[in-house]
Amino acid sequence: MKNRGNQVRSRAQDTTCAAVTALLLGSLTVLWSGPAHAECSSPPEPGVNWSGCEKERLRLNGSNLSRAKLERTDFGGSDLSRVTFTDALMTGANFARARLHDADLTKAQMSKVEAPRADFRGADLKGADLSKSEMSRADLSETDLHGADLSKSELGRTSFRESDLTDVTFRFANLARADFRGATLTNAELGMSHTYLTRIEGTDLKSVKGLSQSQVNLACGNGETELPEGLKRPDSWPCKHLD
Q1: Does the CA dihedral 185-189-191-195 come out positive or negative?
Q2: Each residue of 130-139: pLDDT tens digit?
Q3: Distance between CA atoms of 198 and 97, rounded to whole angstroms?
Q4: CA separation (Å) from 96 to 136, 166, 179?
Q5: pLDDT tens for residues 40-65?
Q6: Is residue 148 within 8 Å of 168, Cβ to Cβ?
Q7: Of 47, 174, 204, 231, whose Cβ has the fewest other Cβ atoms within 10 Å?
Q8: Is 0.70 topped by the overall pTM?
């Protein structure tokens, strides 16, 4: 009877081990299979799932990718001019050197995107989430970023010239040498942002939030720069040798 009991316990242990092994193999299969249900060969259309797909150096200008799933999708060097990305999920996507002229990115989820030297001129980015993104040397001039979140983003040497930055959050962002000339910054949040040589000549900053005197001292303005109450123009203005 004792031997029979040992045999039963041994079979139970073998069954348990087999079940655990199957579960582990199933989990690994899911991890190795890439983004669930990605449709990398599907044509550009609303709601398409291109998560994790390689779409670099393509001409997709004028396409409709509203509500598309584009997490970690590689669009590096692609022409995305006038593409509709409304409500698209693009967390971690790559837009390095991509062209997004006049693209509609309203309320797009774009946190942690890689977009160095990307061209967003004239794009609509109202309400977009661009937090924690790498966008150094990107061109965001003449864009509508009303209500967008750019907190904790890398924006060194990025151009925001003539853009609508009303209610934009720049908290903890790196704005070193970024260009805000001609931009509208009504109620923008600049608390704890890095403003080394940031271009604010002639810019109206009277209503911005969180701006400190030390940030003003690091930035580059001139006699036409309007500052919030309590802050003053430093003697170092205007800066020299910026261009």
Answers
A1: negative
A2: 999 999 999 9
A3: 22
A4: 10, 26, 20
A5: 999 999 999 999 999 999 999 999 99
A6: yes
A7: 47
A8: yes
